[in-house]
Write a structure and sequence with these properties.
single chain, alpha/beta, Rossmann fold, Arc Repressor Mutant, subunit A, 2 domains, 5-stranded parallel beta sheet, 8 helices, 11 strands, about 40% helix, globular
């Protein structure tokens, strides 16, 4: 699971960068350290890592811009933001740009490794056991292939990240039913990683935006005030 997995670490604080890389190495990963965003991007243009850990505040190209560029190349690449900033807007913006998860400094290396492992596991197809795992799920004009990790709406592709796909699968499994944020969290983070309600809201917002990009009339994912979200097939 870990052997040969390349994990990019884009962090300008040397002590933190070296600590992350040492922890990854001990777990059998192959860390790729970078102290600025532009150098990292020059490498990523040629070959993407298996997972990226991005500090939002790195120089020469900040983590937000780097994530935008990574998402333009791949929606499947797992991305974790780390930041020392206190403003919640930075974390929320990072999620809306396309990060799968985030950690605020200071954080424990054990917590980071748990999240790295969880994201890589979800990104692999070996434990994608949705209902049923070997069949395309169709709800109206929405089609989800849990093996190929593809989503189409009215025969047009919707490029979702793995986290977003898991959230959508949970919603369409019970059309019309209201799922709480905790229920959606369990579906999107099956390794019991704890995230905030705002994290789920940010992912849902991004899913809606992607559907609206191909169909401005899409209103399939509804907010239910104080309760959660539901998928209503047209």
């Amino acid at each position: 699971m870990t052997a040969g997995r390349r994990v990019a670490v884009v962090e300008d604080e040397e002590t933190i960068r070296e600590g992350i890389c040492a922890a990854l190495t001990r777990e059998g990963y192959e860390p790729q350290p970078f102290d600025d965003g532009r150098t990292a991007w020059e490498v990523f243009e040629t070959r993407l890592p298996d997972l990226a850990v991005l500090d939002i505040g790195v120089p020469r190209m900040d983590g937000l811009e780097l994530c935008r560029r990574l998402r333009a190349k791949s929606e499947r690449l797992p991305v974790i933001f780390v930041t020392s900033r206190d403003e919640e807007i930075d974390r929320i913006l990072g999620l809306e740009i396309g990060a799968d998860d985030y950690l605020c400094k200071p954080f424990s290396m054990r917590e980071l490794l748990v999240r790295v492992k969880a994201l890589l596991r979800r990104a692999s197809l070996t434990d994608v056991a949705r209902a049923p795992a070997d069949e395309v799920v169709a709800v109206g004009e929405l089609r989800v292939d849990p093996i190929a990790l593809t989503v189409t709406w009215k025969d047009r592709g919707i490029p979702l990240t793995v986290t977003e796909l898991f959230l959508l699968q949970a919603l369409i499994a019970r059309p019309g039913a209201v799922l709480s944020r905790d229920q959606l969290m369990d579906s999107a983070y099956p390794d019991k990683t704890t995230v905030s309600d705002r994290t789920i809201d940010s992912h849902i917002k991004r899913i809606r935006r992607k559907f609206a990009a191909v169909d401005a009339a899409f209103v399939g994912i509804e907010s239910v005030y104080g309760a959660g979200y539901r998928y209503q097939a047209p």
